[in-house]
Amino acid sequence: MVELSSINVGLKGLTLLTITLVLAILTLTYYAHQGSQQEVVVVGAPTILYNAGLAQRLLEDFKFNLGYKVEFRYVVRGTGDLLRLLADGSLCIAFTLSPPLERRYAEEGKINWHGVFAYNYFIIVGPREDPAGVSKASNVTEAFKRIFDGGERGVAVFVSRGDLSGTHVRELQIWSLAGLKPEGRRWYLRTSQGAPETLITASNLKAYTFVDEGTFKELKSRGKVGDLEVLFTQDTYLLVNVYSIVTSRHDRCKGGHLEELLRSIVEYVLGEGQDVLEREYAVKGVFYPARGRSELLEIWRQLSALEVRQGG
Amino acid sequence: MLDVVVRSIYISLAATLIAFTLGALISLLMLATPRRLSGLLVGVFDALVGVPTVVVGLVVYMLIHPGGPLGFLKLLYTPTALVVSQSLVALPIVVTLLYRYFEQLWGDVRELVLSLGAPVGKAYLLMLRESPPALIAVYLIAFSRAIGALGAVMVVGGGIEGLTNVMTTAIALEVQVGNYEYALTLGGVLVVLTVGLSLVARAVGGLVWR
């Protein structure tokens, strides 16, 4: 009799637990399927483009003008991460900004590279006093050399993204071209974080860093990086930041309506969407449309062929 | 901001419910397994308590991404994926705490009741009658762990605005763009929320069971 009641209590407890579990799962499934009526496309966007609102603006404009019923959702990451997600088929389409990585993934047959749709410039920023004399450099490799020398003399610190983002990859390419190996030096710091955080870190440390002008202008205007000034700019292909549109070649992204949708997005971004860039971004000097600048393709080629050397 | 807070609570409550239910089942089963095996298991769960949540997220990602074994469920970048990851994050702490609690109580109560000449079944009843306050405490600890997870939800949820952006990912994304003040406000809300919930649950538990 007593044994029986103890068993009963145990069973009751287990039944209760099972019921709650089933209820939880049911609620969840309901929640997950709610609001998934519309076709959804998850778009990969680099932090820079998302924060400037450019990725969203272009795709909303696409929807509005072409009358597509589709909901865009954004995964915001560095280019290296985005390309990996494309290769997995976790994303079908993304904006990216790292020619060598794009080329590598394209050559491995993981992605389709469709073209450059926008560009802007990389700049070197640093403390107003410019202890390493970067502003006196006549070209970008010399500017990097001055930072290196300044670092060795103990008067300069350089903060690198260190996250294999488009910006970081370019920085590595320039060090490589200058024949310098800053990795592992005491004055060479890596944040492994996004451009804004890296800028703030550089500002706090009175250090030099390498960044795109759009991000810098935006943070500067918000008073977040008061101690930093633009110290070096130049119209050279080495400092042109090219933004590409790429799609995944994963099976999940192939066939039917999705493939057609992806194609029209690409066409739009490289075509009509250029007007939006011209009208709303070029005037602010943040991003410029790629249309009519055929030399950008050559720049992309040159950049994608440059060696990326990583690690000490 | 409100939608992010509501979404966070909803997802984490669901995740905690699953973690707690599974954890309770596991710890009860462990009570019934031979001591050597349960000792080994408890060691494993102890160690898992501190696993970085991003590792949990990566494991779940590998399972649910389109090429993964569970890819057909299309869970990537959905709230469900967040619930699954968070419940895995919270599970080990539920198991270790509940198992220790049950084990100790079981020993004490059984000896006491047996020494008074009462049957084993009474001891079992007594243990469950004593449990609710402790169960609530464990539930809340699990909830804190779930709602505070960042890496796991960033990897499988993507921090998508309006869908999978919860408080931790929102904080991380705001920090990423240099909005430290806003991020800190969100962090404050997160702390107030977990502390407040804990206090309320304790008060309610005290009223009902003491």
Write the layout of secondary structure elements.
The complex is a heterodimer of chains A (312) and B (210).
Chain A (H helix, E strand, L loop, with lengths): L1 H32 L5 E8 H5 L2 H13 L3 E8 L1 H10 L4 E4 L2 H9 L3 E17 L12 H14 L4 E3 L5 H12 L10 E3 L4 H11 L2 E5 H9 L6 E5 L7 E9 L7 H15 L2 H9 L6 E2 L5 H11 L7
Parallel strand pairs in A: 1-2, 1-3, 5-6, 5-7
Antiparallel strand pairs in A: 3-9, 4-7, 4-8, 4-9, 4-10
Helix pairs in contact in A: 3-11, 5-12
Chain B lengths: L1 H31 L2 H14 L4 H12 L14 H37 L4 H11 L1 H16 L3 H7 L9 H10 L3 H30 L1
Helix pairs in contact in B: 1-4, 1-6, 2-4, 3-4, 3-7, 4-5, 4-6, 4-7, 6-9, 8-9
Give a structural overview:
The complex is a heterodimer of chains A (312) and B (210). Chain A is an alpha/beta fold. Chain A has two domains: 39-119 and 241-305, 3-Layer(aba) Sandwich (D-Maltodextrin-Binding Protein, domain 2); 121-239, D-Maltodextrin-Binding Protein, domain 2 (3-Layer(aba) Sandwich), CATH 3.40.190. Chain A is 48% helix and 21% strand. Chain A contains twelve helices and ten strands. Chain A has helices at residues 2-33, 47-51, 54-66, 79-88, 99-107, 140-153, 166-177, 195-205, 213-221, 256-270, 273-281, 295-305, and strands spanning 39-46, 70-77, 93-96, 111-127, 158-160, 188-190, 208-212, 228-232, 240-248, 288-289. In chain A, helix 3 crosses helix 11 (273-281). The termini of chain A are far apart. Residues 1-8 of chain A have low confidence and may be disordered. By secondary structure, chain B is an all-alpha fold. Chain B has a single domain (2-209), classed as MetI-like (MetI-like fold, Orthogonal Bundle). Chain B has nine helices and no strands. In chain B, helix 1 packs across helix 6 (132-147) and helix 4 (79-115) packs across helix 5 (120-130). Chain B is globular and about 65 Å long. The two termini of chain B are 38 Å apart. In chain B, 40% of the residues are buried. Chains A and B meet through helix 1, strand 2 and helix 8 of A and helix 1, helix 4, helix 5 and helix 8 of B.
